[in-house]
Structure prediction request, 324 residues.
Amino acid sequence: MAQLGTQIESVAGARRIEATQPRLSRWRALEESRLFPAVLVLPILIFFLVWNIIPLLWLLGVSFYRFKLTSAQPEQYIGFENFRRLWESSVYWGTLGRTLTFMVCSVGLATVLGILLGLLFWGSARMPGRRLALTLLFTPMILPPVAVGTFYRLIYDPTFGVLNYYANRITGKTYDFLGDKELAFWALVAVDVWMWTPFMTLMTLAALGSVPKAELEAAEIDRLPWLKRLWYVVLPHGKFILMLGILLRTIDAFKTTDLVYLMTRGGPGNRTELVGVTLYRQGFEAFQMGNASAMAVIALLIAIAFTSIYLYVLNYRETRAALR
Prediction:
């Protein structure tokens, strides 16, 4: 009986192996085929199509219509009328100029401070408490903008804000940082710089870490000055990572909305109203979907232009060498 049971189990096992062999052969054939990479990429392409391409095409189509969600009238095709109104609107151009000023000031200050801090931490590998200092330094970068906006709105408060407490002790005056038309804009820039300087520090450390140690040691042996060492050794290797960080920060600063809306709502007046805040008001307060879509398309084109400029600057030497 034992031998009979063993024979039955062996036969069943052989049948199971024979049943799985066609599946394995089909899977191996799929792996060896040229379509296998496309099969792996297909889910990502479907996700990108559903969540990016289709909404983008819908946005582009709505920008050519007079479309208000709360109106009883149907949407009406008006061609480039929404874009013409934006082109002739001095208010929109003022908002766009204010946004570009905010972007340049915020990204510029964060980049300079980030590079300085990155060089400081890069040259102090044996500093006591270096890991703890880096952890505390990167904390603002991981905080949500809602928490940061609420936090600094309380700090800037003219009645019980901690910043006004020290300002009053030093100067004897109280400042309404978010209510003063001369101070509100720069108060927002300071918050954005505080929040994103750690990101540029991280990108600087990544750029410095990409430099081969052999070249640094050779430069040190040749007693190359520090500035020349940065320009001729560090920058050629780390410029790609650093420029990528500047590009990401530029696009992110250009579309800043939540921080500004929470702290000032674009005030006082329109001194801190950026393109993102205007777009939000047109789309979700006035329900003018046509105007909001046209603004979004223009913002997208500006972001693409910034990306193209950065890529051109990044590959300028290679492009110039190829033309020669």
Summary: The first strand starts at residue 65 and ends at 66. The first helix runs from residue 2 to 32.
